[in-house]
């Protein structure tokens, strides 16, 4: 369970162009559920996602992850928490060009010093699960949008994290691939994972597998979304 | 420990894959780097081993040489002086030497004509020649060497032997002939020598005996073996210094270039660091990875270039330096230097080539590595 | 890049790199111990002692370069003991400073 208490995130704090991306926000995300953050661009939902995933710290307020207060953790613990708890799928996938699909998937485990063959096996198994094992040795720049996303998902899952975080996952996909993505998400939910996504795609937030939709506008949660 | 090793190996895997992505840039960098190190290492190895060679070979040079000096110039010394020197207490085996410099108008080369000691007695009409002379005149054993005296008279000498190529560093241009031939060739009277050499009974008394010789022969100059060794100890040292200073300048500009290249991290490199942080890499992981990157480039280039320089100097006779050393000389000895390396020199070169590069690359990376990972989301 | 290896790399970059580095380092360290071969110098040493040679035959273009240690103090460097020489070889070697700064011969020369 992830709980936000009165969280504010201000960019360029103290400067003239300071603005509050998130303002005094309370939020609860339940474990083993799918939560969608929806809202127009610039509403602060991506910022919210970075706060949930421990990639940025709030300016004020507190965030609890699994009943642990994380806002005051030193950087090293935050990194450790990101490694153990969250898997990220970025909107632009953020794969590292020039590396193969397999190498990209293995990336999060690379600095941990585990035997490489073991990591390879796990990465390969994930690629099989996502049906792109045939592309394992291709360079990522040769992939189609759907394949790139599966690679990004495989990379997010290689740590076997309890929480998967995805930023606009269907923005670069056509309808068929978007449905395929939702199937993957459903499968993950069935395995007991928590999923947090941002999306303004109705195909996502209207889906029946989604447990909670939170509408964000101007850094606040809208109580009565249309 | 096992984890640590595996971690480093994985980071190296990643680093190499990354380096291969920018193949042209990185190989170019390594090539420039290797070039600089190669030249520096070649000069260092060559001069050091040549100096070493000189000090070993010439440790058997005559202990004391006595030259007669007239008007500041080396002149022939008379037999009576030999008698004077022989009588000095502590002097042993004093003998007159006959050697001289000869310009061969046939090919523009210079030879050293010399009369050997009793050990290498050579019959009248015969010569033993150094390998360099044999090459220059295309001679074999049994063939004839024709030399023209300064009065235009032709001398016909049969080659009775060619000095071994292993000794070429000291014997390349030698033409050894009998005393009679030598005196006839240069039209020398029978009572003069080029100079005198002698040994000393007690080697600690060399200075003392040299002083005594100076006292009894005031018109002479005394050269001790230590003087000879000191001359060769300083061989090249000034030019090596100038050369190294110049190359040091080249190295500096290379480091500035490297600094310039790396301190302005490209957008894609920044992006990559952001991604790595976002997928859970710590700042220290990124720094370690980048440390490997610069070590692989700089140490790799160093080891590669050093190996090449070593082979070049000791197995290919420093062929690239030959035009410099040869100058205007027609005769140039073909010699193999005995491998002789000063570890301190090499370690100094290693330090000054690897360390600045690693430092120059790590600082900007460190600045980039402490950014917040959420920058890749914006 | 391997296209077939399913769970194991055909080779790892790190293995190749570490192996090359080990070889390079071994060559470097090995080179520090290379100077034990005294056999190859034997013929030259024999000549030096039997003929009483005093110089290396490295430069042959002028007498004072060929017989560096025997040269007149000023013959090579007519104008000044450290002025540049017009023979290329003369610009590489040091003029003999022995006798100018120290040594037994100079005191008794004038």
Notes on the structure:
The complex is a heterotrimer of chains A (226), B (378) and C (110). Chain A is an alpha/beta fold. Chain A has 7 helices and 10 strands. Chain A has helices at 45-52, 75-85, 101-106, 116-129, 145-157, 175-190, 202-205; strands at residues 2-11, 19-29, 34-38, 60-65, 68-69, 86-89, 163-167, 194-198, 212-217, 220-221. In chain A, the strands form 2 sheets. In chain A, strands 6-7-8-3-9-10 form a 6-stranded mixed sheet, sandwiched between helices. The mean pLDDT of chain A is 89. Chain B has helices spanning 2-21, 23-57, 79-86, 131-137, 168-171, 179-186, 206-216, 225-233, 237-263, 267-278, 283-314, 322-326, 343-369; strands spanning 64-70, 73-75, 77-78, 91-97, 99-104, 109-114, 126-129, 144-148, 154-162, 174-177, 192-193, 195-200, 220-224. In chain B, the strands form 3 sheets. Chain B has a 6-stranded mixed sheet. In chain B, strands 1, 2, 4, 12 and 13 form a 5-stranded antiparallel sheet that branches. Chain B folds into 2 domains: 2-57 and 231-377, no CATH class; 62-223, Barwin-like endoglucanases (Beta Barrel), CATH 2.40.40.20. Chain B has 13 helices and 13 strands. In chain B, 44% of the residues are buried. The two termini of chain B are 39 Å apart. Chain C has a domain at 53-108. Chain C has 4 helices and no strands. Chain C has 110 residues and is mostly helical. Classes of the chains: A alpha/beta (226), B alpha+beta (378), C mainly alpha (110). At the B-C interface, helix 1, helix 2, strand 1, strand 6 and helix 5 of B face helix 1, helix 2 and helix 4 of C.
Task: Output the strand order for the largest sheet of chain B.
Answer: 5-6-10-7-9-8
Low-confidence stretches of chain C: 1-7, 100-110
**Major sheet of chain B: size, sense and barrel closure?**
6 strands, mixed
Terminal Cα span of chain B: 39 Å
Counting DSSP E segments of at least 2 residues, the number of strands of chain B comes to 13
Largest interface (C-beta under 8 Å): B-C, 96 and 70 residues
Helix content of chain C: 25-40%
If you average the pLDDT of chain C, what whole number results?
Answer: 71
- Which consecutive residue ranges of chain B, at least 5 long each, have pLDDT under 50? none
Question: What is the share of helical residues of chain B?
Answer: 40-55%
Mean pLDDT of chain B: 86
User: What is the structural class of chain B?
Assistant: alpha+beta
* Percent of residues in β-strands of chain C: under 5%
Number of helices of chain B: 13
The radius of gyration computed from the alpha-carbon positions of chain C, rounded to a whole number of angstroms, is 27 Å
Q: Which band does the percent of strand residues of chain B land in?
A: 15-25%
Overall geometry of chain B comes to elongated
Form type of chain C: elongated
How many β strands of chain C by DSSP?
0
Please give the alpha-carbon distance between the first and last residues of chain C: 79 Å
């Amino acid at each position: 369970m992830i709980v936000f208490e009165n969280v504010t995130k201000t960019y360029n704090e103290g400067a003239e162009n300071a603005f509050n991306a998130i303002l005094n926000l309370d939020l609860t995300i339940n474990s083993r559920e799918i939560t969608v953050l929806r809202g127009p661009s610039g509403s602060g939902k991506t910022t919210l996602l970075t706060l949930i995933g421990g990639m940025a710290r709030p300016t004020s307020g507190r965030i609890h992850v699994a009943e642990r207060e994380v806002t005051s953790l030193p950087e090293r613990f935050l990194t450790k928490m990101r490694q153990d708890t969250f898997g990220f799928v970025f909107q632009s996938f953020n794969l590292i060009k020039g590396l193969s699909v397999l190498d990209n998937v293995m990336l999060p485990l690379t600095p941990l010093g585990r035997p490489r063959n073991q990591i390879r096996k796990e990465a390969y198994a994930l690629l099989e699960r996502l049906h792109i094992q045939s592309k394992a040795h291709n360079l990522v720049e040769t992939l189609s949008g759907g394949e790139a996303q599966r690679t990004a998902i495989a990379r997010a899952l290689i740590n076997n994290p309890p929480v998967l975080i995805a930023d606009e996952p269907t923005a670069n996909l056509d309808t068929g691939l978007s449905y395929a993505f939702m199937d993957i998400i459903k499968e993950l939910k069935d395995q007991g994972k928590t999923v947090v996504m941002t999306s303004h795609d109705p195909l996502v937030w209207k889906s029946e597998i989604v447990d909670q939709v939170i509408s964000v506008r101007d850094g606040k949660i809208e109580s009565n979304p249309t | 420990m096992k984890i640590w090793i595996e971690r480093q190996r994985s980071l190296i895997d990643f680093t190499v894959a990354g380096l291969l992505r920018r193949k042209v840039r990185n190989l170019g960098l390594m090539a420039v780097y290797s070039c600089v190190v190669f030249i520096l290492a070649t000069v260092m190895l060559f001069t050091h081993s040549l100096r070493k060679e000189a000090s070993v070979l010439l440790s058997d040079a005559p202990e004391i040489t006595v030259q007669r000096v007239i008007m500041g110039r080396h002149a022939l010394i008379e037999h009576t002086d030999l008698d004077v020197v022989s009588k000095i207490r502590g002097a042993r085996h004093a003998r007159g030497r006959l050697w001289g410099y000869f310009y061969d108008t046939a090919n523009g080369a210079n030879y050293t004509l010399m009369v050997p000691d009793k050990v290498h007695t050579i019959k009248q009409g015969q010569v033993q020649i150094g390998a360099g002379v044999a090459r220059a005149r295309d001679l074999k054993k049994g063939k004839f060497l024709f030399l023209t005296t300064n009065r235009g008279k032709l001398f016909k000498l049969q080659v009775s032997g060619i000095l071994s190529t292993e000794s070429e560093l000291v014997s390349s241009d030698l033409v050894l002939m009998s005393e009679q031939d030598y005196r006839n060739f240069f039209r020398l009277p029978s009572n003069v020598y080029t100079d005198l050499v002698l040994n000393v009974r007690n080697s600690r008394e060399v200075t003392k005996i040299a002083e005594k010789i100076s006292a009894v022969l005031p018109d002479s100059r005394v050269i001790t073996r230590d003087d000879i060794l000191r001359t060769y100890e300083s061989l090249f040292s000034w030019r090596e210094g100038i050369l190294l200073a110049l190359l040091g300048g080249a190295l500096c500009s290379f480091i500035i270039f490297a600094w310039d290249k790396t301190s302005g991290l490209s957008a894609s490199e920044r992006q990559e660091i952001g991604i790595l942080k976002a997928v859970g890499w710590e700042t220290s992981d990124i720094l370690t990875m980048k440390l490997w990157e610069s070590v692989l480039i700089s140490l790799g280039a160093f080891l590669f270039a050093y190996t090449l320089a070593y082979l070049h100097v000791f197995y290919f006779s420093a062929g690239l330096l030959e035009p410099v050393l040869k100058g205007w000389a027609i005769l140039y000895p073909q010699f193999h230097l005995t491998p002789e390396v000063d570890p301190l020199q090499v370690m100094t070169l290693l330090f000054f080539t690897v360390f600045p590069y690693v430092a120059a690359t790590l600082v900007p990376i460190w600045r980039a590595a402490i950014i917040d990972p959420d920058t890749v989301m914006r | 890049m391997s296209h077939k290896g399913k769970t194991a790399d055909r080779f790892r970059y790190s293995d190749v790199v570490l192996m090359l580095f080990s070889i390079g380092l071994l060559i470097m360290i090995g080179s520090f111990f290379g100077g034990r071969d005294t056999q190859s110098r034997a013929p030259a040493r024999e000549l030096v002692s039997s003929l009483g040679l005093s110089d290396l035959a490295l430069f042959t273009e002028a007498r004072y370069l060929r017989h560096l240690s025997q040269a007149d103090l000023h013959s090579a460097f007519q104008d000044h003991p450290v002025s540049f020489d017009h023979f290329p070889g003369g610009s590489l070697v040091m003029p003999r400073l022995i006798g100018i700064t120290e040594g037994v011969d100079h005191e008794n020369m004038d």
